[in-house]
Amino acid sequence: MEINHAVQFKDLQLICTCSDDFLMNDKEFQQCLKGCKWSTDGLSILTNSEDKRLRIFNIETNETNQCKQLHKVNEIKEGGTIYDYVWYPNTMQNSNDVKLILSTSNRSPIHLWNAIDGELEATYRVYDHVDEVAHVNSLCFNWSGEEIYCGSYGKLNIFRTDRPGREFTEISTKADLHRSIISTIVMNPVDRSIFAVGTYSKDIGIYGGNQLMYILRGHKSGITQLQFSPDGLKLYSGSRKGDNDIVCWDLRNVGQTLYSAERTVTTNQKICFDISSDGQYLVSGNCTGEISTWKLNQIIEKSDGAEIVLPLNSKIPVHNDCVNGVSLHPTLPLLATASGQRHHENDNDEQQLKDTDISLKLWEII
């Protein structure tokens, strides 16, 4: 992300918001958004929501090429609760009819969708011990897009993208990662033979050439997200309720943490964070309706025996409800945020109505 040096992530200017597309008429159903992601070409935003739908929004611009509004161009219905969803990494720039999305949902195979027309392009199936189709919990393309990495309970499955069906390579993780669900997978952007996985048992596994090399431990709750720094030398990890820290791991001294960044996570849902492509800023959602930002290129003196907590750069209110999705534009100073969460039945009705915010917003970073 090429941020002008005058931009210090001190404030955001709202460009547009979209909420009508997520409203439900069923009062018994608690709709909420569950994250947002920019496409690799920066032209579309993908959202996940409680109603088992993926929605694709394009940015409409005016004559001066300034962002004007979010326009929903497609909607994809999955069969169950959507666990993970990713854009194909190398969007075909010269094609107007192909833009791919991979998704996994409860009790369903893995689906590869065409985001332009909403058609199903391919299906990948993992089978359980009684030879029935089993879902996976996490997804990731390798950097070329030629392989699909899938995580589930106690195993990783690797598919060739051009070979739909049930042909895959399987890596068992039960012996080393506490027989837990693989909740997140991420590829190293520099050494592309290395990838990391996080589990709900709080373990982080670092793999090289599909072989486990290191295990990182230190979180108090299950891991929900991992992200490498752009230089591939650091790994950031975030977890769910019970652990507010985003932890930065030093991969040059494996097992050592450089610092942590404190946010507010009071639910088990995934609260996303993102890193600017120049590696200068970390931004995270909070359950308080705010985003927090930290500057990463500052020098921090470490006291003997003391853990370093990264100083907060800014905290900015953006929604009236939990901010579960944050996604930085790949090249422009733009931020997409998504909000929503389930509210308890015993919540005060008036207060619940006040705090409910189901919306996708687009911001300019200033």
TrEMBL record:
Belongs to the TCAB1 family. GO terms for molecular function: RNA binding. GO terms for biological process: Cajal body organization. This is WD repeat-containing protein 79. SUPFAM superfamilies: WD40 repeat-like. PANTHER family: TELOMERASE CAJAL BODY PROTEIN 1. It comes from Aphis glycines. GO terms for cellular component: Cajal body.
